[in-house]
Amino acid sequence: MRNLLRRLMMVKPTQVRTVCDLPAKPTPTVSPKRCYEDAVYALNNLQSNEATLKKSMQYPTSAFLKSRLMPEHLQAVGLKVSDLDDLKVIHVAGTKGKGSTCAFAESILRHHGFKTGLYTSPHLVAVRERIRINGKPLSEAAFAKYFWDVYHNLKAKEGLDIPAYFQFLTVMAFKVFIMEKVDVLVLEVGVGGEYDCTNVIRHPTVVGITSLGLDHTRLLGSSLQEIAWQKSGIFKKGCPAFSLPQPEGAFQVLQERAQERECSLSLAPPLFDI
């Protein structure tokens, strides 16, 4: 015992290891693949359920008014609506062909040396396809990074609900395109135009209307004239607008809306006429 006490007295303080001095256990890391899959799972939980969709059909105006919260959602993730003014935006609405029109426009601009952003819907295989930089979908790692940044910022904002699937992705897409400093953004409208959440853009470079038809009639109206009114909601003062040939009544509505919004409206001939 005396020998043990003598040895302990000879030990220097620096030789004594406490629990705090012990090496910490390695923190388990989450693989990028798992992080992405968790992001997709969380995003899918933002899908509107059947009851919500039915309510939207019964009260379309109140459903559309949710898009008016876009400024608050943008602010929650560190953006202002005025930040979007710096983007060179080609905004496209329509019933048929708007996705392919956006893809053609993006490809032409990219092959002329511009750094492009493309936002379209729906996706074919992976949700990452909706947000593209230079023609390529976001990588799983980039998607997860931006998703969780936006998600946690929105979650932390008191008094503001996290937006539903499409509106969430739209907020995220704007964040991506601004952070990635694209030269031009080709932006496809989700549904309609007037009340679509993409219509938070105030100063597009140019807007386009593709072929109009009867679609989403409970939300947009039961006639081509009503649908034309909704689609032309993306017209902005001083911004040139182009439209494919439309049925007479629908095109007249587009002309009236262009006059109201003080923007020029030109007719784009079909490709086989060029």
UniProtKB/TrEMBL annotation:
One of its GO terms (cellular component) is mitochondrion. The keyword Transmembrane helix does not apply. InterPro entries: Folylpolyglutamate_synth, Folylpolyglutamate_synth_CS, Mur-like_cat_sf. One of its GO terms (molecular function) is ATP binding. Transmembrane segments: none annotated. The keyword Nucleotidyltransferase does not apply. Keywords: ATP-binding, Ligase, Nucleotide-binding. Coiled coil: none annotated. SUPFAM superfamilies: MurD-like peptide ligases, catalytic domain. PANTHER family: FOLYLPOLYGLUTAMATE SYNTHASE, MITOCHONDRIAL, FOLYLPOLYGLUTAMATE SYNTHASE-RELATED. NCBIfam families: folC (TIGR01499). Belongs to the folylpolyglutamate synthase family. This is Putative tetrahydrofolylpolyglutamate synthase.
